[in-house]
Structures are given as structure tokens and as C-alpha cells.
Amino acid sequence: MDTITTQPFSDQRPGTSGLRKKVKAFQTPHYLENFVQAIFDTQTDLRGGVLALGGDGRFYNREAIQIILRMAAANGVKRVVLGQGGLLSTPAASCVIRKYKTDGGIILSASHNPGGPEDDFGIKFNTPNGGPAPESVTEAIFERTKSITEYSIIEGQPVDLDQPGEQTLGETSIRVIDSVKDYADLMMQLFDFERIHQLFNSGVFSMRFDAMHAVTGPYAKYILEGLLGALPETVINGEPKVDFGGGHPDPNLAHAQELVSLTSGPNAVDFGAASDGDGDRNMILGRNFFVTPSDSLAVMAANAHLIKGYATGINGVARSMPTSQAVDRVADQLGLACYETPTGWKFFGNLLDAGKIALCGEESFGTGSNHIREKDGLWAVLFWLNLLAVKQQSVAMIVQAHWHTFGRNYYTRYDYEAIDKHAAEGLMAHLRSELDNLPGQTLDSYRVAYADDFAYTDPVDGSRSEQQGIRIGFEDGSRIAFRLSGTGTEGATLRLYLEAYEPDPTKQMQSTESVMGRLVHIALTLAEIEQRTGRTKPTVIT
Ligand code: G16
To answer: Exposed (0-12), middle (13-18) or buried (19+): which is 524, by Cβ within 10 Å?
Structure first.
């Protein structure tokens, strides 16, 4: 075993979901190693314990895995459960950690961020419950990176990542597992595969799933085309590539345009879905119809009793603060507990572990349940497929009927990417300074009911998270929220979230753009976005 002398890097604080940087930063000598050593130094159960390991297959995945394996061996890890080819989607990794009862997992991914030598890479640690490490753990890892002086690594031949079965590296045994099988088994327990199979074989139903050349390709092919009998052309862009085919593996209307066009026009397919770089996000489309992630969560909550894995009923739901309140209305009517958490899947972990909620979701194209502790793209797609098979209605019919019952929460998000960090911080400070003056004011006919900087006290362990984004709520149920992203790798990204509530069914078929006009104007003026950032329009609207 070699002990290598190193020096701390000052920028290794994990963001919303792990440490994400440019590949070049991770290739800096000792950069990856320091962070990995900080994990082994703080997560001491891994010494003599079991580690799950895999990544989304992006550029530098295989190299990073070889380094982590050699460090795991040097740090006394007894056994590593490794996804074949170094691949594990984020939800599959969560499933594997739980199924094999490992002492945690390391997942290599920068999620929906582009990949390639000039683009992004990432690493995160998941705890033995299968979920992203909570802030107490990520802060401990960060603290360790600030004082690290050495790391341990063994010399050795590269491990064969592609050959299933057992190998040894030093004293550590490495078990290469099929990346798909455990996850597929879990999906079979939750959904009515026979019914979905019948839907695919009915001759009147067509679907496309866009894997965006990312990790979900093999999962979607095996489950949709293999087990469920969907036609072979169902999965598009199904071959994982290190640079995602040059695309931006973010399943939204801006980046999944091929899929959007397949669900549009007279020859549109009935159902379209996409997943992101590491397979935890999802986008749901009907024929000429986009389901917002917030609505998707609300529809799932309202219909969970129709789905095999949730047929006995759900007790509670949760959404992140910027996610629309559509699910709150379902919870209200059905008598379910409903929690509002900060952005970041890690905040759902305690609620799921304590059995307080069964379903949760975020506006950022994430939905999931108590089956694992990560959001789960393909799970959401199978949930929708199961629902379509049971209801025998189109996606649009299901969502519109939902709006009739619960009201419609129009929703949109504006992202201003790669803006100057100081300007972004100044903008947030300015908004904070206005908070006390806003309640009671009327802004373009919207009366402010409350304005605050969102803070959260975890109901399970009492931990407190402050400054989680500005919320401005209006008396008619509409809302504006502002936050700075914690996943970008360049400058700052300002997110502006807008929501307008419409209970009247005769007014639920307007375009989101027209409904949002006045709220957008209020938000731009309040935050002085153009003055402070120099941007006259957002980089992306979703
Ligand atoms: C991550 C987190 C999500 C979060 C999203 C956006 O998703 O897991 O919980 O909602 O980032 O975060 P932000 O607004 O800070 O950029 P993913 O899919 O990137 O892992």
C-alpha cells in the first residue's frame, strides 16, 4: 500500500447533489483521491465493510472507478459491489445499496450536466439507507477535505470491470454484478407487468422512450422491450455514450427535442418519456401534451391506489419548496400528510425512512417513492404506463380530469445560467432585504400573503436548514420563488419559479405563457434581474 502526500483543495464542498466539477478539475493530480479519502476517513463503517460502486458512464467514469477500487482496497474495504462496466444508474445504485445491505455507495455522476473531456463529472456518497448523504455527512466530508495531508492507494493491475463474478484486489473482493437485474426485479414487484404487456400488445398504443445516450438505455431496453413486449423501436438513443452523443442529457422540453417532435403532430405516438444522464430524472409526455413534473407527482398521489405496489394506500407525500402546490391539493382532499422540503432529494430521506411519506417529487423532473431513496426516472415511466393500462385513457384526459377535480397549478421555471456569482448573491441579498415590506402589498393586482426565506426543520431529527430560497405567496394561491442552483459548475445559476392557481375548469386550457405574463413581470421587477445580471432573457425556460 502506498501513502501519498497531498494538499487540500479549498473547493470540495458538495452541492445540491454531490461534488460536481469540470472533468479537468477531477483530472488534477490528487483531486479525486482527496475527496475519496475524505469519504473513507469519515465513513468509518466502510473499513471492513461493503461498498456499492458505479456511475453513469460519462467520460472519466472508468478511470475514476479504477482509482476508487485501488483506494478502497488500501482503506480496508472488505468487499465492493460494482455495476458491470462501471455502470449503475442512480436509482439502481440506491436499490443495490439497500438490497445488498452495503455500508454505503459511491456514485459517479454529474446527472443531467453534459459529459466529455471539456464538460462535467461528479461524485457523491450515499448512506446505507440508499439515499444521498444528508448535510451532516457531506459537511463532515468537506471538513475532512480541508485538512487532508495524505491518502492511501494500492498498486495493482486494472480490475476487469466488464466480467461478471468475483475478483480480488489486494485483500478486497470485488463482485461485478449485472447493472440492470436487481433494479428490474424491484420494478416487477411494484407494477402490474402483465397489464402493461397487454397495453403494448393492444395494437392501439405506441410509445417512445428517449434514453438520451445515457445510462438508462440498457435498463429501458431490458424492461420495456424485453420484459414488457414494447416494439424494438420504442427506446431511442438507447446506447450509452461517454459524451451522451454530444447532447445535454436533461429530459425537458428544451433538451429532449427529438422526443418532443415524436409526440407532436398528426402521427404522434401516444406516450413519450425521457430520462437523464444518471437515470433519476423523468419527463412525461402524452400525444401533443406535456405533463409538468409537479402535476405528475399530484396525479401519482391521486391515483396511487390503482397501482400494485401502492394499492393499500399511501399515508403522506412531500415536495420540494419550488415544486408547485398541485400535490398539496391532492393531500388536502385525501387527508394525506404533506411536507415542503428544501431542494435536494436528500431532504426526503428521513421522511421516507420514518414512514411519514410514500411518494415525493420535485419540479426539477424528479419523482420517486419509498421503494428506494433516490428519485427514479424509469420508475416514474412505469407508474404512468401502469396508470394508462388501468385507466385506458390518454395522458391528456387523465391530467385534465385531475385539474377538474383539484384545480390547475400553471407552472414554469426560468433559468439564468452562468451569471456572475457576485451579481447573483447581490440579487438574493436585495430580495431578502425586501421581504419584510412585501406582505400586504398589491403587485399588479396580486396581493402578497407572505414573503420569506425558506427554512426547514426536519421533523425526524430536528436538523435545521436555512436560506433555502425566497418564497413570495399571493392570496389567490399563486407563488414566485427564487434560488441559486447548487448543481452548476460555472458562475451562478439563478432559478425563478412561477406558479398560478386556476380552480375554474373553463379557464384551465390557456397557454402557460399567457397565464404567467403578469407574474413574470412582477418577478423580474422585484429582483431587478436585468439591471443586476445584464440578462434580458433566461437561458432556458422549462
Ligand atoms: C439534483 C438534486 C435534486 C435537485 C436538482 C436541482 O438533481 O438531486 O434534488 O432538485 O439537482 O438542483 P439545483 O436547483 O440546486 O440545481 P440531479 O438530477 O442533478 O441529481
So the answer is: middle
Are 213 and 247 within 8 A, CB to CB?
yes
**Ligand 1 site, residue 342, Cβ cutoff 6 A:** no
Q: From ligand 1's centre to the CA of 404, what distance in Å? A: 31
C-alpha grid cell for residue 15? Answer: 452541492
For the whole model, what pTM was predicted?
0.94
Strands 79-87 and 172-177: parallel
Identity at 71, one-letter amino acid code: M
What CA–CA distance (Å, rounded) separates 507 from 264?
Answer: 23
Burial (CB < 10 A; 0-12, 13-18, 19+), residue 251, is buried
pLDDT at 71: 98
Q: How far is the CA of 114 from the centre of ligand 1 (A)?
A: 14
CATH number of 408-541: 3.30.310.50
Q: Among candidates 270, 304, 310, 306, which has minimal Cα distance to 391?
A: 306
Q: Is 88 exposed, middle or buried (0-12, 13-18, 19+ CB in 10 A)?
A: buried
Burial of 339 (0-12, 13-18, 19+ CB in 10 A): buried
Ligand 1 lined by 495 (C-beta under 6 Å): yes
* Geometric angle at alpha carbon 398, from 392 and 401, rounded to 5°: 130
d(CA 507, CA 503): 8
- Average pLDDT for consecutive 10-residue bins of the chain (542 residues)? 95 92 97 98 98 98 98 98 98 98 98 94 97 94 98 95 96 97 98 98 96 97 98 96 94 92 94 97 97 98 97 96 98 98 95 97 97 98 98 98 98 95 96 96 94 96 94 96 87 96 96 94 95 93 90
Yes or no: say if 131 and 105 are a contact pair by the CB < 8 Å rule.
no
Strand partners, 169: 172
User: Does residue 98 have its Cβ closer than 6 Å to ligand 1?
Assistant: no
Which residues make Cβ contacts (< 8 Å) with residue 69, sequence separation at least 6?
53, 80, 82, 159, 169, 172, 174
Please tell me if the CB atom of residue 364 comes closer than 6 angstroms to any atom of ligand 1.
yes
- Topology alike, domains 2-179 and 183-406: yes
Q: Which residue has the cell 391539493?
A: 329
CATH number, span 2-179: 3.40.120.10
Of 240, 287, 293, 239, the closest CA to residue 259 belongs to 287
CA distance 85 to 68: 14
Is 111 designated active site? yes
183-406 CATH choice from 3.30.420.40, 1.10.10.10, 3.40.30.10, 3.40.120.10: 3.40.120.10
SS3 251: coil
Residue of minimum CA distance from atom 9 in ligand 1: 344
What is the domain partition of the chain in residue ranges? Answer: 2-179, 183-406, 408-541
Q: Where are the alpha helices (DSSP H) in 392-508?
A: 395-406, 421-434
DSSP characters over 304-353? GGGSGGGTT---EEEEETTS-THHHHHHHHHT-EEEEE-SSGGGGHHHHH
Which contiguous run of DSSP H or E holds residue 390?
A: helix 377-391
